[in-house]
Amino acid sequence: MCIKICAEAFDPWQAIQAHQYSAKELAGKFGATAVFIGTMRDFNDGDQVKGMALEYYPGMTEKQLEKIVAEALQQWPVIDVLVVHRVGDILPNEPIVLVAVWTSHRGDAFDASRYIMEALKSRAPFWKKELLESQAERWLVKNTDGYY
Amino acid sequence: MCIKICAEAFDPWQAIQAHQYSAKELAGKFGATAVFIGTMRDFNDGDQVKGMALEYYPGMTEKQLEKIVAEALQQWPVIDVLVVHRVGDILPNEPIVLVAVWTSHRGDAFDASRYIMEALKSRAPFWKKELLESQAERWLVKNTDGYY
Amino acid sequence: MSIKVRYFASLKEALGRSEEHLEFSGLASVGDVWDRANPNKALPDNSLAAVNMDYVELNDPVKDGDEVAFFPPVTGG
Amino acid sequence: MSIKVRYFASLKEALGRSEEHLEFSGLASVGDVWDRANPNKALPDNSLAAVNMDYVELNDPVKDGDEVAFFPPVTGG
Predict the structure, then answer these.
(1) What is the spatial distance between Cα D73 and Cα D49, in angstroms, rounded to a whole number?
(2) How high is the mean pLDDT of chain A?
(3) Mean pLDDT by 10-residue block, N- to C-terminus, for chain D (77 residues)?
(4) If both were cysteines, with which of A82, A106, B99, B109 could B103 make a disulfide (CB 3.0 to 4.6 Å apart)?
(5) What's the rounded Cα separation, in Å, for the pair A78 and A6?
(6) Structural domains in chain D?
(7) Which residues from chain A sit within 8 angstroms of residue B103, using beta carbons?
């Protein structure tokens, strides 16, 4: 299990590959991996967006993410989990969040990864402020739901 | 959109990275990526498994995969899809299937990737034969369901 | 009419052949194709059938030049 | 008792401060902490509150040494 808060841009595919290959005990044991990546877009609510500042609550953010992952482990037979979330200044096309779940069977991987993402969206203390092309700044006020 | 049948081992994370970075028009446009990877395990049904031979129906397999992806595109606003499936001789810990879906919003990515995987499991003409530690060979007779 | 018949996976191994050509006259269904190619041998339960690489039912028709395939439930992914 | 109060994101900007210490005596709820720290100012609708980094309701109690936080709905992921 690995939860990372990350102030620099990261390549999500390299992050998963590195995690998977470093966990030698995983080899041969997992049959399913489900991954979700959230990436910054260059438009939102009809406006061009130049960048984003992502604030968090050091300590509480990690605590809540650990709680969410523990809930997933209680509900599904999960072999391993990797969660990475950016903070700080973010540019369009950079990944914001990565959730990867390794299980024996696919239903569990799909369910657990989606559970973690939805819980993260509603409970992990992160806040996004967009910087628009017009130089105006605006706080996002609410996450859209994932119609789960 | 890209559908590949692949007779050699592939690194799923590199395959996704290469696809995403080569599709320059994707940059800044997608907000969500959902990925599923199925990987060969070294045990099944209580037996140690040394390897697997994956047979397919050239022509029909591609046709059915294209149909499945087209169904997903009709049901969800999907920006891009990558499907890769191994055939031939496979060793434990090698990836068998990769489904990646790029969308604007996360609910669509989760739903479309799971739809494609479940449809692939039930309709794409692939057949697995396991080679056991005992040297016995056995055909898998049925895919487990993904309790979707 | 001329029909190409193909078998895959465990069904191919059980029959000992992967492909054959049938020549016969008159209308026929997918199930008829199996019966002519494999007289006195029942198609195993749960087998799937395709005509020209699309799934079909056993009572669907075949026509001259079709490729008909029989195979066990699929186990990919 | 001594309470550390923290604010985040748009609420922090609206109040113009991120952190403060309150000293007072007697039992109090999370809502009381807000009222003492921000007299005559209502906590914005939909705001969330945490004590010692766990989510709480406004009528939950606080005790000496607690860290109490107020912030808007979260928008991560």
Answers:
(1) 10
(2) 94
(3) 97 97 92 96 96 98 97 97
(4) B109
(5) 24
(6) 2-71 (3.10.20.30)
(7) none
The size of chain B, in residues, is 148
Structural domain count, chain B: 1
Domain CATH code at residue B45: 3.90.1170.40
Residues belonging to chain D? 77
| CA distances, C29 to each of A88, B57, B104, C12, C59 (Å) | 66, 22, 46, 21, 5
Range scoring the smallest mean pLDDT among B12-26, B89-103, B108-122: B12-26
The distance of Cα B81 from the centroid of its chain, to the nearest Å, equals 11
Please state the pTM of the whole predicted model.
0.95
Long-range contacts of range B64-67, CB-CB < 8 Å, 24 or more positions apart? B64/B123, B64/B124, B64/B125, B64/C53, B65/B3, B65/B120, B65/B124, B66/B3
Note whether A touches B: 3 CB pairs or more under 8 A.
yes
In a domain, A126, yes or no: yes
Q: What is the separation, in whole angstroms, between the first and last Cα of chain A?
A: 24
**Is B48 among the domain residues?**
yes
